[in-house]
Amino acid sequence: MSQEIVLEVEDLSVDINVPSGTLHAVSNLSLHVKKGETLCIVGESGCGKSIASLAIMNLLPRRASLTAKTLVLEGRDLLDLSEKEFANLRGDRIGMIFQDPMTSLNPVFRIGNQLEEVYMEHGKGNRKEARERAEYLLEKVGIVAPKERLSQYPHQLSGGLRQRMMIAMTLMCDPALIIADEPTTALDVTMQAQTLNLLRSLQKEFNAGLILITHDLGVVARMADRVMVMYAGYAVETGTAIEVFDNPNHPYTQGLLDCIPVPGRREPGSKLGSIRGIVPALVGDIKGCTFRNRCDFSTKQCEEEIVALKELSKDRAFRCILTPEERETTKQNPGTTQ
Amino acid sequence: MNQLNPQSNNGNIPALECRNVSQTFMIKSGMFAEKKPLKAVEGVNLSVNRGEVIAIVGESGCGKTTLAKMLLGLLPPTTGEILLDGIPINSVSILDIARKVQPVFQDPYSSLNPRKTLESIISLPLKVHNIGTEIERKGRVEEYMRLVGLPNRLIHSYPNQLSGGQRQRVAIARALIMEPKIIVCDEPTSALDVSVQAHILNLLQDLRKKLNLTYAFISHDLAVVEHLADWVAVMYLGRLIEFGKATDVFRDPKHPYTQALLESVLTPDASLGLPEITLGRGLPNPLSPPSGCYFHPRCPKSSAECSEKSPLLKREKNYLVECHLYN
Question: Which of B231, B59, B221 is CA-nearest to residue A158?
C-alpha cells in the first residue's frame, strides 16, 4: 500500500448563517487520508460529520461559508477552484456514496445510462468504452448478469443491489478519494456486512482513499484504519481503530462506547452507560469545551478556554485537558480538581 | 392447540399468545392480472408470560411489523387467534384492546401530532376512554411525565421543541398512561443516536421492572435484542423459523439463517475484521416464495431435500426451530 497522501485538510471551519446568529457547524478540523486507507468519521447527529464531508466536496448550502488553511487533493489546491472545476472533480477524482441509493439514482433513467454518463461526462471515453467499463465494474461488485441489470431501472433493484450500483458508479472514473456517508444505514444487517466487505476490497484494489462517515461504532471498529470522533463540530479524538476502541482518551468516546450494548461484554438486562444532557447549541460564540456540560470530569478550566487538540503522536490526538489517568484519579477523589 | 407453545405448559396463562396466526394480503400484480396472495405472516405460534420481553427479529419484509399490527389489534389476522391474558383479541372491542396493549413506534417525529401540546398528546388516551376530569387527567399526565423522566415544565411544549429522545419519552408516557400490560415497541430506538438510545433502553428496563410490563420488542439490532430480551423469535419471509430463550438462541443458534444474522452483527471490536457472510442475494419475492424451505436459495447448508419439501417445525421444551437439519 502506497503511503501517498490523497487528501489533506487543515483548520477547516464551516459557519452557517441561521436566523439566530452564526452556527459553527465545523470548527478547526484537520485530517488527512492516504491512498488505500480508510478514515472513519464517527459522531452523533449534528456533530458536523456530514457538513465536513460536504465542505470537502464543495457541496455546502449557500448560507454556509467555509474557511480553511489547507484543502489539498492529490497535490491540487481545492480552495482556488471555480465552481466548474469543482464539478469536473466530483465524480472523477472524488466519488460519493450517500445513505439512500434510491434518492441518489435517477428513477427515470436506466442504470446503464447513469453509469455511462459519469464516464462520458468526465471525458474518459465514448459510449462503447463506458458500457464496457460499466459491465466490468458490475461484475466487480458481484452482480450476476450485468448486461441485463444495466438495462433495468433503479426501482427494479433491491436496496442492497442499488447500493452496489452506487459503488460501481463511484468507481467508474477510478477516483482518488471516496466519501461514503452512512452507506449501509438503510440496509439490513445481512446486507450491511456484505456491502462493507465489497467497499473495502474494492477500495484496496483501486487504491483509493476512503472517508467513511457513520454513527455506528460497530462499522467503525471493523472498517477503519484510523478513526476520528467528532462532537459539536470539533474533532475530539483521533487515532487508529485499535487505539481509539481499546484506550479511548476522550470522555465522550468513552461515554459512546459505554452506551452501546455489546453481546457478551455486559450482563443482559443490566444498565447501559449513558451520557447525560444533550448536544449544546452551536450558535454564537463557543466558549470552553463543548462537551463540558455532559462531562463527569469538567472543571472550571473547561469553561474558560477552548481545549486544544493534544497530539500524542502523528496520528493520535485528543481534545481534553485531562488524560485518562488523571480522569481516573478525579473519579476516585471527586472535588480535588475543582 | 396449547401444546404448540412450549413455554405455556406450566399452567399459567400467558400475557400474550399467538396461535397459528397468518396474515394474507391480496396484491394486484397488473392492471388485468388476477390478485395474488402475499403471505405476510404465516402460521406464527408464540407466547410470552407477564413481565417478559419477546424480541421479534428479521430482515425488512419478514413480516415483523405486520405481526406487531396484529398484536395491537389494528389488523385482524386472516387465520389464527391472538390471545391477551387468554382472551381472544377479536372477541373484545378495539377500545378494550387499547387498554391492554399500547404501541411505541420507531419515529417519534411522525408519531406525535405537531400541533398539540405534550399535555394533550399524553392525555388523549384518557380522553378517548372518558377517564377522569380535566384536572385529574392533568395530574395523571404529570405523574407519567415524571415516570418517564420528562421535566414538568415541558407540559405545555410542542413536540418540535423537544429532542428525539424526549419525544420518544412522550410516546412512552402516552403508551403507559392507560396502564396497559403489554407494550409493542416497533424499532423504538433505531431513529435515535446511540447516547439517547442508551437512555431509552434503560428507561424501558426500569419501567418493565416497576410496572411488570410485557414487551413485544421488534428490532433489527441484535445487540439491543440480546441486551433486553428474554425470548427471541426469528422470522423469515413471514414464517417463524426459530424461537427460544434469548440466552439459548444467542449462545447456540440452530437455524442457518439465525446463525448468519448473528454473524452479521458488527460488534465494536477493532481487532476483528468484517465477517464473511455467504447469504448472497436479498430476500426473495414474497409473492412467489421459493419451493420447499423458504430459506434454501440463500442457505449455505441446503441440500436437495430443502428445495423439495417444507421443513417441519421441531419442538423441544422452550425451543422451536424450522429446518431440515433438525427434522
Answer: B59
